[in-house]
Amino acid sequence: MAPKQKTEGLTVEQGVFVVPDVSIKELLDAIPAHCFKRSALRSSTYIAWDFIVIGCIYKAACYVDTFIDPSVIELPHPYAYRLARFALWSLYGFWTGLFATGLWVIGHECGHQSFSESKFINNTVGWILHSGLGVPYHAWRITHGQHHAATAHLTNDQVFVPKSRSQIGLPPLDPSQEDILGSHVSEKVMNELWDALGDSPIGAVLMSASYLLGGWPSYILRNASGQIRYPEGTNHFNSNAVMFKSHQYWQIVWSNAGVVLWLAVIASMASRFGVWQVLTVYVVPYLWVNHWLVLITFLQHTDPVLPHYRAPQFTFPRGALATLDRNVLGDLGSIMGWIGAHATHGISETHVLHHVSSKIPHYNAWEASDALKKFLRSRGIVLEGAPGGWSEVVRVFKECKFVEDEGDVVFYKNSYGLAQMRPIFSDGAANDSGIELDK
Q1: Strand 2-6 relative to strand 15-19: parallel, antiparallel, unpaired?
Q2: For position 428, what pLDDT does the model report?
Q3: What whole-number distance in Å separates Cα of residue 262 and Cα of residue 249?
Q4: What integer best gives the mean pLDDT of the chain?
Q5: Helix (H, G, I), strand (E, B) or coil at 187
Q6: Under 8 Å between Cβ of 9 and 86
Q7: Neighbouring C-alpha atoms within 13 Å toward the C-beta of 272
Q8: Cβ 308 vs Cβ 411: under 8 Å
Q9: How far is CA 111 from CA 31, 125, 319, 383, in A?
Q10: Looking at residue 106, what is its pLDDT?
């Protein structure tokens, strides 16, 4: 967005988003047929590989740790040994958490039934993997399926749902002071919105960090970033929660049993090996997994260039195409970008494809994604976001504050009430706000 200062406020030149007019059949037909094939054996090899890599990381850390000793190496101060050990095991936590995120992704694929042709195998493997990472497998599987069915739907999507102007307590839109599409805002309104929503650089970083660390448990436990229409106290452990149907009751109970067993194992290991050892070897990598999960999914579904829809304009294809592919760790260079994609099985790099067809296993998703992108480019649709990293989270967090209460195709506005994009339809019809827009 290129701002242009005027005496009466601020005006920006917006990008134009052509609301997709494409059928799910067209999207699926663009994908080679063999990409839909699932193999339990092949999928299992990736579980084995992730555990092998994690085991090697642990063994390497233990080996290097033996050298951090006064009898082996002389450091300038006794506390330097503690600092060196802290750095070593911090690196262990980072890398283990990254590859453990790959295990999380495979459990997620089980929930989509893309691990194998067998529903029993999918749910058994998914329950084991996700329970081992503190995830209520069936509960999350159910709500995540609802998310896929209604991605970017303002009243039916399950997570990363934008709050509207009225929901965050802002004054009603004044058409004489600001454009509903977010292209112009008066100085008076800009100041009011900034006072209510503005972030200092440090504040934005701290809020983003707290979001990355606590976002996942907050969503599971209290519906943070979820549907605001759900009752207060909605969570994924209540078998009678509004998100679940009566016949799913025992699936939620079974999910809860997996999490209880997970907690019991952690407590047992802490009793046997010590709390500090369990924190170092398991809990820190576990927190990294939660961090990557939130970072990846937040950036897939949140950006000022992405639309959100109300019911009159929502379709499944439009929802599927209201997400972005991003290269995890790509902001640190091509090598780190390759490692990030490899460790997390391309869940971020092929995410648009995943929303078009969630039953395609990750090892086929690369080819399928390339074919889908070729088709989308022929229709003028490019859904590539900036690489996924901390700086991108902060940028998006600052740019995506609220959406308007009116309009069936809406974009995030920032702390000044300005939006980067405006919608038009492929036939040049007026947009849903009743304002005629040029093609």
Answers
A1: unpaired
A2: 53
A3: 20
A4: 93
A5: helix
A6: no
A7: 6
A8: yes
A9: 22, 9, 20, 25
A10: 98
SS3 402: strand
Average pLDDT rounded to a whole number, residues 39-51: 98
**In-domain check, residue 434:** no
Confidence bin at 202 (pLDDT 50/70/90): confident
Boundaries of domain holding 277: 9-425
- Among 135, 112, 110, residue whose Cα is nearest residue 124: 110
The structure tokens 């805002």 sit at 185
List C-alpha distances in Å: 284 to 256, 275, 277, 281: 23, 12, 10, 7
Q: In 3D, which of 134, 135, 106 has the Cα closest to residue 122?
A: 106
Long-range contacts of 32-36 (CB under 8 A, 24+ apart): 32/367, 32/368, 32/371, 34/364, 35/360, 35/364, 35/365, 35/367, 35/368, 35/371, 36/357, 36/359, 36/360, 36/364
As a residue count, the chain comes to: 439
Evaluate whether residue 432 is within a structural domain. no
Instruction: Give the three-state DSSP class for 73.
Output: coil
Q: Which of 35-44, 139-148, 272-281, 422-431 has the lowest mean pLDDT?
A: 422-431
Q: Tell me the average pLDDT across 193-218.
A: 88
- What pTM was estimated for this model as a whole? 0.92
Location of structure tokens 């290129």:
2
pLDDT higher than threshold 90 for residue 335: yes
Residue 414: strand, helix, or coil? coil
Axis-axis angle for helices 284-301, 390-399 (nearest 10): 50
Name residue 5's beta-bridge partners: 10
- Cβ burial of 27 (10 Å; 0-12, 13-18, 19+) is buried
From the number of C-beta atoms within 10 Å of its C-beta (0-12, 13-18, 19+), residue 363 rates as middle
For 318-343, what is the mean pLDDT? 97
Does residue 157 lie in a domain region?
yes
430 domain residue, yes or no: no
16-25, 56-65, 216-225, 363-372: least confident range: 216-225
Taking the C-alpha atoms of residue 62 and residue 66, their distance in angstroms, rounded to an integer, is 7
Burial class (CB in 10 A: 0-12, 13-18, 19+), 237: middle
| Cα gap 224→237, rounded to integer Å | 14
Separation of alpha carbons 139 and 241, rounded Å? 10
Cα distance between residue 238 and residue 231, in whole Å: 12
Residue 319 reports pLDDT greater than 70: yes
| Under 8 Å between Cβ of 313 and 432 | yes
CB atoms closer than 10 angstroms to residue 122 = 23
The domain tally of the chain equals 1
